[in-house]
Amino acid sequence: MTEFNAGQLRRVGQVKEVTSLANPIVKDIKALAQKKARDESRSFIAEGLKLVIDAIELGWTIRILVYAKAAKGKPQVEQVAARTVASGGLVLEVSEKVLSAVTRRDNPQMVVGVFEQRYSPLREIRPKPGETYVALDRVRDPGNLGTIIRTADAAGASGVILVGETTDPFSLETVRATMGSVFAVPLVRTNVADFVRWKAESGAMVVATHLAGAVDYRAIDYRRKPVVLLMGNEQAGLPDELAREADALARIPQAGRADSLNLAIATGIMLFEARRHLLTLDADA
Ligand code: SAM
After folding, report:
1. Contact criterion met (CB below 8 Å) for 32 and 45
2. CATH homologous superfamily of 122-284
3. Whose CA is nearest to atom 5 of ligand 1?
4. CB of 251 closer than 6 angstroms to any ligand 1 atom
5. Which of 48, 135, 183, 258 has the most neighbouring CB atoms within 10 Å?
6. How many CB atoms lie within 10 A of CB 65?
7. Do 6-116 and 122-284 have matching folds?
8. Which atom number of ligand 1 is nearest to the Cα of residue 254?
9. CATH class for the region spanning 6-116
């Protein structure tokens, strides 16, 4: 890769300086707050220099790098700008007003990346012994989904499978809640019928969680096969068509008056229990 710095890029006209909210590229980036624009362009926004660097390191394609004038000259920003141009992306040096507008924040991060969305096809997911996946039935809340992706990453899960109509994993709110893990955890989207077919062929054990589950989640042997933890929708819980696919229906015993746990909390408990059995979590870490 040819190494340029942003000063050189500016001289060769590859860094565009933008201060106007009426700039068409700025308008396109702003539109990425809407799902329709994200779907059409198959791109999304991620905020923060570290996160953008990590994403590029992990092989994600950056389409546009946006940075604040105040970040000009910082070596890491210059390097990211050079890498963006080298991979065919665009670099914008903008006013804070523009950054606030694209991120919809009063105190925006200095650096924002527009990345290509990426989903893994379900047929390519072949769970191996020792692996754990999370499958989410119609997850609705962006904060829950982001937290689950982050927790799946931290627990060493191999992927998150979105079943049915779900909130968009690439929305600003979800990406923020993942704290960068959206770039580390493979995401799959599917429907109930394809999930059921895949389950039959995958060789995985589906542990579904249900308030009326017959088994205490601590009594399950998670080592027998690769595990798919299947979690129900926030309002409706798991529908029968999915619950009957489960090899075990697990319940997390509760005390007190709460009738259920928050979906992301329940997923975290299940993930760390399953991973604990697989002894992949370093007790000294
Ligand atoms: N009203 C819903 C119901 O009746 O199932 C509550 C859904 S709960 C907020 C969302 C999901 O988190 C559930 O479908 C289940 O997957 C999981 N969950 C929450 N608390 C649980 C518990 N105590 N045991 C097992 N799963 C639980």
Report:
1. yes
2. SPOUT methyltransferase, trefoil knot domain (3.40.1280.10)
3. 237
4. yes
5. 135
6. 26
7. no
8. 23
9. alpha beta
Question: Domain residues of the chain, as ranges?
Answer: 6-116, 122-284
The helix, strand and coil proportions of the chain, stated in percent and rounded to the nearest 5, come to 40, 20, 40
Tens digits of pLDDT across the chain (285 residues) = 445 566 666 655 578 999 999 999 999 999 999 999 999 999 999 999 999 999 999 999 999 999 999 999 999 999 999 999 999 999 999 999 999 999 999 999 999 999 999 999 999 999 999 999 999 999 999 999 999 999 999 999 999 999 999 999 999 999 999 999 999 999 999 999 999 999 999 999 999 999 999 899 999 999 989 999 999 999 999 999 999 999 999 999 999 999 999 999 999 999 999 999 886 555 555
* Whole-angstrom distance, CA of residue 53 vs CA of residue 181: 13
Q: Is 226's C-beta closer than 6 angstroms to any atom of ligand 1?
A: no
Say if residues 133 and 158 touch (Cβ distance below 8 Å): yes
CA distances (Å), origin 227, targets 21, 127, 206, 221, 224: 48, 8, 6, 10, 9
Pocket lining: 134 vs ligand 1, CB cutoff 6 Å:
no
- Please tell me if the CB atom of residue 231 comes closer than 6 angstroms to any atom of ligand 1: yes
Question: Hey, whose CA ends up nearest to atom 23 of ligand 1?
Answer: 252
Contact 32, 41 (CB under 8 A): yes
